[in-house]
# Entry
Amino acid sequence: MMTDIYAAKYIPIGYRTLSPDESTARRTAQDLKTASEEAIQIAAPVMAALIDGPCWLVPVPASNGSLTANLALARAIAKLVPGAHVKCAIGRAHPVESSCARRLRGQPGLTVEQHAIIRTAGPMQPLPVHFVDNVITTGTTIAACRRALGWGTGLAYADASTRQNTHRQR
# Structure
């Protein structure tokens, strides 16, 4: 079983009262969606501490296909990990509905296929790959990335999953 890694736990609102650290982690994870410089300064060092170089850091595209936020995060992590290289190696074949929006309406998140993740890079040196994202919820986004590229591990700031597909490392 492939296990993805994260730096903080993301506790959903209404689940229970958050500790101050959990509240900060949740806010940071949300702010990473907009490439907030403050959030990147918080997240990049703790995410960088989870990995070793040399490796590829592959930003995960947002539901609208944009790489902007996760690309900024990946670049900040790369500055902290010797031998880490950022590679925009995946994209979306078309925009998809946000899994978060679907869950707020009581619908299930997207399946691996519905994520429409495709490989956009040519051949790559066979180094470890870390898919950079702000939050792992069900693991299907990272699974879709892994399927498109052929290998890789999820590297997220926060874990919001209820399954054992992720773990906090170091």
Notes: The helical segments are 20-32, 37-48, 68-78, 99-104, 140-149. The mean pLDDT is 89.
